[in-house]
Amino acid sequence: KKEREHRNSCEFVRWHFRCLLCFLVPHPHIIGPESAPKVTAVASSGFWFHTSEPASSPSSSYLHGRLRILQQESNMSRAPEDPNNEKLQGYALLHNYGLAHLKSSALKCAVGLGIPSAIDRCGGGATISDLVKETGLMPAKLPYLHRLMRLLAVSGIFDESTPLSPVGESEAVYKLTPASRILVHDNSSTSSCDMSALLLLFTRPETTVSTFFNLEAWFRDPGSQTPFEMAHGMSPWSLTKADASYNDAMNIACVADSKFTMDIVLKEGGIIFQGIKSLIDVGGGHGIAAAAIARVFPHITCSVLDLEQVISKAPDRGQVQFLVGDMFEFIPAADAVLLKAVLNSWDDDSCVKILRRCKEAIPARDAGGKVIIINMVLGHGALDKAAKEAQVLLDMYMMRGRGFEREEHQWKNVIKDAGFKDYKIKPLLGPVSVIEYLFTR
């Protein structure tokens, strides 16, 4: 019975780690200590180790052998000191960076094929065969889809597991992770917010991606054009007028981002809207943020100010009023002005102009006047490696125009130059914070 149990364990290990060559060896206490041989095992890394030396008693031999195995395994896990090791690490890192565009291309492809939604429809887990059926792909594409999913699983977009099968090969099962769960773009129960539109904007080949194709040439160019202007001959805002598809992509992405952001802001930081009777969302797009605020605080009169090409396509949002205007020229009066993901698109001088218009629109601090900014503050928030990288990547993305992501001291300078005396910063969304400007006349 013992031997059968050991054999089953060995088969289990061999099934999950097929790179290992496994040997079944009796415990030291089963055979005499004087005749117990050393046990040699082979690992895929090429190291050899010896365990289970004879001991004076069966029990001590067993314990001694187990400890020796653990010790030898620990030693095997340490990378050998190799002068070429750093070179190899650098070599691997260069491949990761040089081919990193394949990650975003693969993710864009997966979203376009509807793979996150297909996994969701399959109950949260799907094989490659399931995905081929759900997405309507030709069976001939199955091995290529496997390679795509393998890349995205290694990158953390999906979770991959292979169930144990006693009768041969089993297909890998792919499940949603926190990243792919917010890419489910149908009315499913597991996704409260669909961020696929934002992902598709970030990976849009003809505008976003192509903007950075000639970054070196832009650095060397003595002119004052932005990378976007050099690539497309106009600013992003001008392109929204000239290219309807780009305008739609921008608006849909902003809607998705606003839904996601405001859901968290209102749950975690809703107190910031208390005491306000009127609010205007400057650059508020299709009114998602204003409508969300009005639902939670129905006593607040909410309005949206944006450009004509944006407002013209905004759907009815109940009591939310839409106003066509230029924030550089005039902002209608309100108790509070909301600027969500607006100021990072502009340089400091432009931000100061916008904030001065905000200051003209709101009452004094003791009357409840405030400016609420939802934007990134570099270095703030609970920042793991992924969040830090997201911050600097978004800053690099904003370099396409004249904007940038600011550190706290840079926000402070803008606040001071605009005439505000005080501010508060509350991290709420990992890399994104809520900044409250208070104005004392």
Question: What would the keywords be for this entry?
Answer:
alpha/beta, 13 strands, O-methyltransferase activity, WH_DNA-bd_sf, 441 residues, 3 domains, Arc Repressor Mutant, subunit A, 19 helices, Rossmann fold, three-stranded antiparallel beta sheet, COMT_C, eight-stranded mixed beta sheet, methyltransferase, globular, S-adenosyl-L-methionine
Overall description:
This protein has three domains: 2-77, no CATH class; 101-190, Winged helix-like DNA-binding domain superfamily/Winged helix DNA-binding domain (Arc Repressor Mutant, subunit A, Orthogonal Bundle), CATH 1.10.10.10; 261-438, Vaccinia Virus protein VP39 (Rossmann fold), CATH 3.40.50.150. The chain is globular. It has 19 helices and 13 strands. Strands 6, 7, 8, 9, 10, 11, 12 and 13 form an eight-stranded mixed sheet that branches. Strands 3-5-4 form a three-stranded antiparallel sheet. It has a two-stranded antiparallel sheet with strand order 1-2. The protein has 441 residues and is of the alpha/beta class. It has helices spanning 2-16, 58-77, 85-98, 101-113, 115-121, 128-135, 142-154, 178-181, 196-202, 205-211, 215-220, 227-232, 236-242, 244-269, 288-296, 308-311, 348-361, 385-398, 408-418; strands at residues 39-42, 48-51, 125-126, 158-161, 173-176, 278-282, 301-306, 321-324, 336-340, 370-378, 406-407, 422-429, 432-438.
